[in-house]
Amino acid sequence: MLDRHETVARIVLDHSECAAVFQKHRIDFCCKGQLSLEQACTGRGVDPALVLADLESAIESRQGRPDDDPRELGTPALIGHIMSRHHEYLRRVLPFVRPLAQKVSRVHGDHNPKLRTVESTVEQLVEALVPHLDREEQVLFPALMMRNSDGSVVAQELASMHEEHLEVGAMLDRLRTATEEFRTPDWACNSYRTLFSELEALEADILRHVHLENHVLMPRFAPTRAS
Question: Which of 27, 47, 91, 222 is most enclosed, with most CB atoms within 10 A?
């Protein structure tokens, strides 16, 4: 039985399948993961009892063995997982969705003006995420794996990472609003449907990615900021 006073970040750490439930209800378990389930639901105007029931249903219906607990990984292994699972995914998908968003906006923007917001938000995401990945891989991650790294550099890079995560989270929220929860109209073409499907998968991956960095990696070096 889940406790509605438990933080949403801890719920996802203990039960990874709950991430999809929070995503559906637009509850931020990454940058606002320190909020309790009840606080997070109240902030979104969602009934905590409804979300709690969805979470418990997801846990009960989980198939197969639970995902490996990232908290049990050493720092090099955790960073390796983040890079291979999430950084590589973003580097592969972002160059695909960017022109696709442009195409769908160009063809259908007059019919649905919100597609222009989708296009501009995808553009902002790409412009924010690519240099973010580069800096993590070239500066932050090597510093975290050094035995005698400069504490001031680590603290500065972690602070920058956290601020950029907040910006990306706001972009994801705008994107979900502009896509109307990633729903496509009956008249949508294959490109339109593909774009929205890819964007929903992109959102899910970024949320899990940021969650790992904010609530597993960062607390090892800056526990007060990430808690």
Answer: 27
pTM above 0.70, yes or no: yes
Can you read off the two tokens belonging to residue 182?
A: 């990633």
Count CA within 13 A, CB hemisphere, residue 95. 5
- The amino acid occupying position 133 is L
Please work out, in degrees rounded to the nearest 5, the angle formed at the alpha carbon of residue 37 by the alpha carbons of 36 and 42: 100
Place of tokens 């559906």: 24
Helices 114-135 and 88-108, interaxial angle, to 10°? Answer: 160
Span 105-160, pLDDT tens digits: 999 999 999 999 999 999 999 999 999 999 999 999 999 998 877 788 899 999 99
Rounded-to-integer distance, Cα 123 and Cα 99, Å: 9
DSSP 188: -
- Cα angle, residue 41 at apex, residues 37 and 47 outer, rounded to 5°: 115
- Using the Cα atoms of residue 41, residue 183, residue 174 and residue 198 in order, give the sign of their dihedral: positive
- Which amino acid is present at 117? T
What single DSSP character describes residue 68?
A: P
Strand partners, 36: 7
User: How confident is the model over 13-47, as pLDDT tens digits?
Assistant: 999 999 999 999 999 999 889 999 999 999 999 99
Q: What backbone torsions phi and psi does residue 51 show, to the nearest 5 degrees?
A: -65, -40
Question: Phi and psi of 188, rounded to 5°?
Answer: -65, 140
Minimal CA–CA distance to 218: which of 163, 173, 158, 165? 158
